[in-house]
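Reading group handout, session on sequence-to-structure problems. Before we discuss, look at one worked example. The prompt was deliberately terse, the way you'd type it at a terminal:

> structure Phosphopantetheine-binding protein

The input record follows.
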Amino acid sequence: MNNLDWNEFRQVVSDYVGVDADEITRDTDVFDDLYLDSLGLFGLGSHITDTYKLNVALSLVASISRVGEFFDLLNEKGTPIEG
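And the output record:
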């Protein structure tokens, strides 16, 4: 299990999507509130996993719709990138 910081995570999401970090909550919908489509979600996923140097299965990323779910997924299933 990883120990990511929620406020830092929100800032990483904010930097990618251009929405103020204070407006991002665990219940923020990545599609309706952040205006991402499925490709945008994978782009966000790539940005976040590169930032934190974690791997996570794309099939798991495809199943999320809320920022809090993404945060939990990385904390629970993200594995460190070797090298």
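Points for discussion. First: The beta strands are 54-55, 79-80. Second: The longest helix spans residues 38-52.
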